[in-house]
Design goal:
The protein is α+β, with helices and mostly antiparallel strands and 185 residues long. It has a single domain, classed as Alpha-Beta Complex (tt1808, chain A). 22% of the residues lie in helices and 37% in strands.
């Protein structure tokens, strides 16, 4: 089942935000707001979840800083509401956070592409950069690549490092380890 779009061009942005926050969807479905559209995505497949789990496990084992990996944490970023595959913060940072949180203190967001890879590559990248999230890690299943975007400035990331699945990618401080993408193949 593909993600469903609900065109909402006639509504104000606040009405859209309220609609997302009050929308009732079946368990496992995710609701996001981007580019004036409410996107409802079905539960992810096993490969998607396994990739997220693999990154989380490596972060917990190897990151220099003690971190929390929060799957499916709602983030309020400029003009959008997103639910990344993973939100990484210093341990305890989001303990008292609301379901939809301001991204202040987020160290890294992880997205694993599925039904809408173009949204992950463009709209989410720009929104996360505008929110000044230091690192955006995109596992692009369609392209067979992992991209690490860093150095957010002026609404976009200034640096990106891209590797094919199977090649390692170095995560910067405060993680300071080489992410093994061999399991992604």
């Amino acid at each position: 089942m593909a993600a469903t779009e609900h065109s909402t061009q006639d509504s104000s942005h606040r009405d859209l935000v309220d609609a997302v926050l009050n929308l009732s969807v079946s368990e496992g479905f995710r609701t996001e707001l981007t580019e004036g559209k409410i996107i409802v995505s079905p539960p992810s497949d096993g490969a998607h979840g396994t990739l997220i789990s693999n990154v989380a496990r490596q972060l917990h084992r190897h990151a220099e800083l003690d971190v929390d990996f929060l799957p499916n944490k709602g983030l309020v970023v400029p003009g959008c509401l997103f639910v990344p595959g993973g939100t990484v913060v210093a341990a305890g940072r989001f303990r008292d956070a609301e379901p939809w949180a301001d991204p202040l203190g987020v160290l890294l967001v992880l997205e694993v592409s599925s039904t809408r890879p173009d949204m992950d590559r463009e709209a989410k990248r720009l929104a996360y950069a505008k929110a000044d999230i230091p690192c955006y890690l995109l596992v692009d299943r369609a392209a067979g690549k992992v991209t690490l975007f860093t150095n957010p400035e002026q609404g976009d990331y200034q640096t990106d490092i891209r590797v094919s699945f199977g090649k390692p990618i170095d995560l910067p401080e405060p993680f300071s380890f080489r992410l093994d993408t061999t399991p992604f193949t």
